[in-house]
Amino acid sequence: MRVLVLLGAPGAGKGTQATILAQRLGLPHVATGDLFRNAVRAGTALGREAHGYMERGELVPDAITIEMLIERLGRPDAAEGVILDGFPRSRAQAEALESALLVRGERVEVALLVDVPAEELVGRLAGRYVCRLGGHPYHVILNPPRVPGICDVDGSPLEQREDDRPEVVRARLTRQLAPLQSVIEFYRARGILRAVDGRQPIDLVSRGLIEALDPVTTA
Ligand code: AP5
C-alpha cells in the first residue's frame, strides 16, 4: 500500500497537485476538506457538526476527522494506496494515521510539502473557483479553465468556496499554520519530509514533487 501525504498551508496548491499526482500514479485522491464539504452538502450529522468549524476557519476536532479518514482508508479503492490531501493537520492526526497503518504493517511513504509563503496565499484563495462535482481547483488569473465557468476534468460548473471569503481566509491562516508546522516537524523527525517550492508554476511544482518521490520509491 502506498500512502503519500501532501502538506501545505491553505491555498498552497495541495488540491491542484493531488489531482495531477493521482492521475500520474493511479492512486485515489483523498481530501478531508472534500469529504467534509460532501457531508455538509448531503446534510449528514457529520456535515452539520463540521460546518461550524469550517465557516469559522477552524480545524474540525481531531476525533471526528480521524474517524472519517480511517473509514475512508478502509474502502476498496484505497487498497493499493492513497494520496492524502489536507490530512494529517495536527500532531494527533499524524500519530493516529501512523498507528492505523502500523496495524496493517504499513507506513507513510513520504510527506510532500508544497511550500508557499503566507503573503501569497490570500491572493490565491481570493481568485479561486472549484468545481461542484469533484472540487477541482482553478484560479481566475493564475490557472483558468479551458472553458470559462466549466471544469476541465469533469465538466461540472465552477463556484467559489464558502470559506474563501476574505475574513474566513484570514482566520484559516491565523489558526491553521501552527498545527501544520507540528505535522511538518513530525515527518521531518521521521526522515520522510520532502519540500518543494510551491511558488513555481504548477507544472514545475508537479515535476519537483515527482522528483522528490523518486528517491523514496527507488530506495
Ligand atoms: P481544505 O479543503 O483542506 O482546505 P485548505 O487546506 O485550506 O486548502 P485549500 O483547499 O484551500 O487549498 P489547496 O492547498 O488545496 O490549494 P489549491 O490547489 O486549491 O479544508 C477546508 C476546511 O475543512 C478546513 O479549514 C477545516 O475546517 C476542515 N478540514 C479539512 N481537513 C481537515 C483536517 N485534517 N483536520 C481538521 N479540519 C480539517 O490552490 C489554491 C489556488 O491557487 C487555486 O486557485 C489554484 O488554481 C491556485 N494555484 C495552485 N497552484 C498554483 C501555482 N503553483 N501557482 C499559481 N497558482 C496556483
Describe the 3D structure.
This protein is α/β, with parallel strands linked by helices. It has one domain: Rossmann fold, CATH 3.40.50.300. It contains eight helices and eight strands; from the N terminus they run E-H-E-H-H-H-E-H-E-H-E-E-E-H-E-H. Strands 2-3-1-4-8 form a five-stranded parallel beta sheet, with helices on both faces. Strands 6-5-7 form a three-stranded antiparallel beta sheet. Strand 5 and strand 6 form a beta hairpin. Helix 1 crosses helix 8 and helix 2 crosses helix 3. Bound molecules: BIS(adenosine)-5'-pentaphosphate. BIS(adenosine)-5'-pentaphosphate binds next to helix 1, helix 2, helix 3, strand 6 and helix 8.
Q: Could you tell me the strand content as a percent range?
A: 15-25%
According to CATH, the fold-level topology is Rossmann fold
Largest sheet: 5 strands, parallel
Rg, nearest Å:
16 Å
Strand order of the largest sheet: 2-3-1-4-8
Structural class: alpha/beta
Bound molecules: BIS(adenosine)-5'-pentaphosphate
Give the SSE string: EHEHHHEHEHEEEHEH
CATH superfamily: P-loop containing nucleotide triphosphate hydrolases
Mean pLDDT: 94
Number of domains: 1
Provide the fold topology.
Elements: E1 2-7, H1 14-25, E2 29-31, H2 32-42, H3 45-56, H4 62-73, E3 81-85, H5 91-103, E4 108-115, H6 118-126, E5 128-131, E6 137-139, E7 158-159, H7 166-189, E8 193-197, H8 202-218
Parallel strand pairs: 1-3, 1-4, 2-3, 4-8
Antiparallel strand pairs: 5-6, 5-7
The site of BIS(adenosine)-5'-pentaphosphate has 37 residues, from helix 1, helix 2, helix 3, strand 6 and helix 8.
